[in-house]
Amino acid sequence: MVARELLRELEARGVRLAVDGGQLTARAPAGAITPDLAAQIKAQKAELLQELQRAPAGLLAPLPEPLARLIGAAICDHLNRPLLLPAGIVPNLGEYVLACAAQYAAGVEPERQLEALWTARRAWAS
């Protein structure tokens, strides 16, 4: 798998790679990085660093497909219900999802917004 394909695979799993001080850093939901993926990341570290540094500053990655579907459901008003999240009760899941997506798109704490969207997705799916 080439670096760009590996990045897409990782994004689809909710894994965010970044370059911090020339070092590759990762944030991921628990269990998202399998031993095979970890080995691929290690083997392609130099290529991944190059690919990430090539992206224009401030450009956010497209949302993974599961989150895009979640946002689509919110837009179609299929999530208009309260839901209990780890942070507390959300009176309207659809409004919460759309607010998080809008903040992500605006670049407001994108890591935090992605984490909130993944949490909402897991709660919605269960």
Indicate the multimeric state: single chain
- Look at the helices and sheets and give the structural class: alpha+beta
Q: What form results from the Cα inertia axes?
A: elongated
Our count of domains comes out at 2
Short description:
This protein is α+β, with helices and mostly antiparallel strands and 126 residues long. The chain has helices at 3-12, 35-43, 45-54, 65-75, 93-105, 110-125; strands spanning 16-20, 23-27, 83-85, 88-90.
Q: Can you describe what's shown?
A:
- The chain has helices spanning 3-12, 35-43, 45-54, 65-75, 93-105, 110-125, and strands spanning 16-20, 23-27, 83-85, 88-90.
- It has 126 residues and is an alpha+beta fold.
- The protein folds into two domains: 3-54, Arc Repressor Mutant, subunit A, CATH 1.10.10; 65-125, no CATH class.
- The strands form two sheets. A two-stranded antiparallel ribbon has the order 1-2.
- Helix 4 (65-75) packs across helix 5 (93-105) and helix 5 (93-105) runs antiparallel to helix 6 (110-125).
- The chain is elongated and about 45 Å long.
- It holds the Pfam family TubC_N.
- This is TubC N-terminal docking domain-containing protein.
- InterPro entries: TubC_N, TubC_N_sf.
- It comes from Deinococcus marmoris.
- Residues 5-53 form the TubC N-terminal docking domain.
